[in-house]
Hints:
By secondary structure, the chain is an alpha+beta fold. The protein is built from three helices and three strands. β1 and β2 form a beta hairpin. The longest helix is centred in the N-terminal third of the chain and has 8 residues. The relative contact order is 0.15. The mean pLDDT is 75.
Amino acid sequence: DDAGFTESSFEGLMEFGMGSKRLDPTATGKFGLGFTSVYHCTDCPVVVSAGSLLVLDPLRTHFPGLADDKALEPGMRCELAHEDRALLTDQLAPLSLPFLERGG
């Protein structure tokens, strides 16, 4: 699927473990096994889609302050077009994607 994530897709990822797709019989991942499987490979997955960078930290160990305030969402999302790329150098370094290099 080459479509970008929708707003509800991003919200579903930020609501870790809530099963936001279970009521939609046509949704990929409705059984809760889709994206969750990435946590076998990493504790802090990164998603780039639809012009956004999403970094998830459901264990609240990689972002300062998350462990202390459970009301905060478990990660961060930013719109790449509105961010100073120089401030995101460390986050973008593992993502060798051509559209990031040309500012897309």
